[in-house]
Specification:
The complex is a heterodimer of chains A (196) and B (581). Chain A has two helices and eight strands; from the N terminus they run αββββββββα. Chain A has 196 residues and is α+β, with helices and mostly antiparallel strands. The longest helix of chain A is centred in the last third of the chain and has 29 residues, at 167-195. Chain B contains 27 helices and ten strands. Chain B starts with a helix and ends with a helix. Classes of the chains: A alpha+beta (196), B alpha+beta (581).
Chain lengths: 196, 581
């Protein structure tokens, strides 16, 4: 019989602690944090639009027409550093809209140019179902029919400019290299000790 | 610490890790779910439907009026769990519990496997749990909405019991356990069943060459596994799944689908935001801690542990081979860059196989199990001489689980509210969800909306035309009826038959999702429906603007039972499909 089988229950404090932790998590933590993360219909849900426009294409204004929960509205996207962590004049236009939680919006992106009709860059439905913050990223490129915007992946945790998109992968490879050196060092010392 | 204390501490550590991994689920388990794609909603629907399923595996609440066959469901184990817990827990609670506790039990089983089979010592054995239970594949399962795939203690327990059963001291008990664990793998998902079979065959071959196979444990394992395997195959064949081959047996298409469900070399190391937008969140990162430890295994093992070394070699080969298979039919870095034919490419000669084998990436369950166990073993050996210097390895494995997979950063916290307008639909009549067809890059939206509206049924309980499980939504009654209704509403001369047809189909209400239509179509459809059935009711809660049009009941339908209505609607649906074609 293993030694632990004869232990009195009073000595099994880690087990009791674990049980308490589970109960706490399920019964107490939930309502305590609910107030902060609750998703009642009255909560504000922010949608951030981020449109990257290359230097070769210039617009006097970039507009977004949004149908959200049946209501149509229009916002002008800006590149003046006033929204989030935007860098002014970097060609990345941002706009945000706050309202009731919406699982998706119908979006039309328009670029205004002088003496020319508005250019329709994008039109379609996009999901916005992150309760906390929905960030939608678009890239404008030139095509044979003029400029178009396509949906691209917004980098996390929310930087806008290009190279940052690859940061998780760059960090992963750096981490891999570091681990290789660290474990290699551990193995080297073990090997040297065994030689001695 | 004694074994009880160690196990309690292990459970606590993994539970806290799981709370962070699935964040913010623990903050509101019944109201928010972490996900990114769209299968979560059909999973919730399945769990809600499970308690009412009989052994015929047929649901009348979906694919109205013909009903949906569920004998080809994703996870029979989840159906069983849902039935067992249905007395007190809602579908949301069951899915939340599986999502939160699944990785804990998976990790715990992997930790025990590393400790018992490879003699890894605590706390280094924790590395096995972090690598297996909180792998990139688990994160992918969470983000895709495949919560059942997160509950996988069966594979480590199968490896443990089968290793014993095929070893020198194997007895009946080990064989029986292995049989049950294999069955649990198969019932969790078919893919896990395939991976488990691969493991069983590899270990069996090793035992055969070593001459350690004994009849008793083999017979005990077969006693459990064979009936379960036959039952599963019978269900699979009965579902008519092989018919899919006749309609879509194009090997090139099947190969492309399989490629989409395969691992990429780059995503084995890390993830980029594009993965969640364009690759269905498939970023099965392996974890560099276990990987680098495993790389040095031959040096770190030393010469003493001859027996352990032999087992260790088996897991090296299992890990490598399953990783190679997981890369699928083409070798690529991220999307379609290298595109070199790979080990599963020859399967295009067998379209019957390729049309069903869509997710080779799930072979990484075995890779992460082997890597984690090897990592724990190597860490144990290294810690024998320098325990303090090895301590950061545990934190590194934790960082792989939380940062390396990106699970808490990548997931979206999705509210599980149901729009209130559904409560105003007539009872015992079907609801027809009306939304447009999406093509090209936006085609996923059609799956999303279909699954989402199936989830709404868990609250309103009216029959739906949607097929709520599977990927064949473009042949389901909703798609067919939707197509006919949208075309009729948008044409000038086909409106006369609409109400009669809807009544014959047993439709109690048409639920329009106006924001999904283009502005012009939306106005036309709303005008036409209002003209036909009068002023609708609408709601803006639950995250959607929905407009509900109640269909007046015919005199014939008014007093019909739901069964009679369904049988009449089935005939009307067949007529409609024929006429529409």
């Amino acid at each position: 019989m293993p030694q632990s089988a004869s232990l009195p229950f009073s000595r099994l404090w880690p087990m009791r602690f674990a049980l308490h932790l589970v109960v706490l998590m399920l019964l107490w933590v939930t309502p305590m944090t609910n107030s902060r993360y609750a998703h009642a219909a009255t909560d504000k849900h922010t949608v951030i639009l981020q449109v990257s426009i290359p230097n070769a294409i210039s617009y006097t204004k970039v507009k977004a027409e949004i149908i959200r929960l049946g209501n149509q509205s229009s916002i002008t996207l800006v590149d003046d550093g006033s929204i989030g962590n935007d860098r002014p004049g970097d060609g990345i236009y941002l706009g945000q809209q706050t309202g009731l939680f919406a699982r998706y919006i119908h979006l039309r992106l328009l670029g205004e140019q002088e003496d020319v009709d508005d250019a329709l860059l994008f039109s379609g439905v996009v999901r916005t179902d992150d309760h906390h913050l929905a960030k939608l990223d678009f890239q404008v490129v030139k095509s044979v029919d003029g400029a178009i915007a396509f949906r691209s992946a917004a980098s996390d945790p929310g930087q806008a400019y290009g190279p940052v998109r690859g940061i998780p992968m760059i960090v992963a490879y750096g981490w891999g290299l570091f681990m290789l050196m660290y474990v290699g060092w551990l193995v080297f010392f073990r090997f040297r000790q065994s030689q001695q | 610490m004694n074994p009880y204390q160690r196990n309690a501490a292990t459970f606590c550590i993994y539970l806290l890790t799981s709370a962070a991994f699935t964040w913010p689920l623990v903050t509101d388990p019944l109201g928010l779910m972490p996900t990114r794609q769209f299968d979560l909603y059909s999973l919730l629907w399945l769990v809600d439907t499970a308690p009412e399923l009989s052994l015929s595996f047929h649901s009348d609440n979906a694919a109205w009026p013909v009903g949906q066959d569920l004998s080809h469901t994703d996870s029979f184990l989840l159906v069983v769990i849902a039935r067992l817990l249905a007395f007190a827990f809602s579908a949301k609670a069951v899915v939340a519990a599986v999502t939160l506790l699944g990785p804990v039990f998976s990790a715990w089983a992997a930790e025990r496997f590393a400790a018992r089979c490879l003699a890894a010592r605590w706390p280094w054995s924790l590395i096995a749990g972090f690598t297996f239970g909180f792998s990139g594949l688990t994160a992918t399962a969470m983000l895709e909405g495949h919560g059942y795939a997160m509950l996988d203690p069966w594979l480590p327990l199968l490896a443990w019991s089968w290793l014993r059963a095929t070893g020198e001291g194997g007895d009946t008990q080990h064989g029986l356990t292995a049989g049950f664990m294999w069955a649990a793998c198969l019932l969790t998902t078919a893919y896990l069943g395939i991976v488990a079979t691969f493991l069983v065959l590899a270990m069996g071959l090793r035992a055969l060459f070593r001459g350690t196979i004994r009849p008793k444990p083999m017979a005990a394992a077969a006693l459990v596994a064979l009936p379960m395997g036959c039952f599963y195959i019978a269900l699979f064949l009965r579902s008519g799944a092989l018919m899919r081959l006749e309609h879509g047996g194009d090997a090139t298409v099947s190969l492309a689908v399989m490629h989409a469900g395969s691992a990429r070399l780059g995503t084995l190391a890390g993830w980029v935001p594009y993965v969640d937008l364009g690759l269905h969140s498939i970023a099965p990162t392996l974890g560099f801690t276990a990987l680098t430890l495993a790389l040095f295994a031959s040096v770190a093992m030393g010469k003493r542990q001859k027996k352990a070394r032999s087992v260790w070699r088996l897991f090296v080969w299992l890990g490598i081979s399953s990783c190679i298979i997981s890369l699928g039919p083409y070798l690529d870095l991220f999307a379609f860059d290298l595109h070199l034919p790979w080990v599963l490419y020859p399967l295009h000669h067998f379209p019957a196989v390729t049309s069903f084998f869509h997710f080779p990436v799930r072979f990484l369950h075995l890779t992460t199990l082997c890597l984690g166990a090897l990592g724990a073993l190597v860490a144990t050996r290294l810690a024998e001489t320098q325990p303090k210097a090895c301590a950061p390895l545990l934190l590194a494995a934790l960082a792989d689980a939380l940062v390396g997979t990106g699970a808490p950063i990548r997931s979206h916290a999705v509210p599980l509210d149901v729009p209130s307008v559904y409560s105003q639909a007539p009872q015992d009549r079907a609801i027809l969800e009306l939304f447009p067809e999406f093509h090209g890059m936006m085609s996923d939206l059609e799956f999303y909306t279909s699954n989402l509206t199936c989830f709404y049924q868990t609250e309103h309980h009216r029959p739906l035309f949607n097929r709520c499980l599977g990927t064949t939504i473009h042949t389901d009654p909703r798609w067919m009826t939707n197509r006919w209704l949208t075309a009729s509403l948008l044409s000038d001369d086909a409106k006369g038959q609409i109400i009669g047809n809807l009544q014959a189909l047993g439709v109690g209400a048409v639920l329009l999702h106006p924001d999904l239509f283009s502005p012009q179509d939306r106005i036309e459809i709303q005008l036409a429906l209002t003209k036909l059935v009068g002023t609708p009711v609408s709601s803006d809660d639950g995250g959607e603007h929905l407009v509900l049009y109640t269909i007046p009941q015919s005199e014939q339908n008014a007093n019909d039972s739901i069964d009679l209505l369904q049988s009449r609607a089935t005939r009307s649906y067949a007529d409609l499909v024929e006429a529409w074609h």
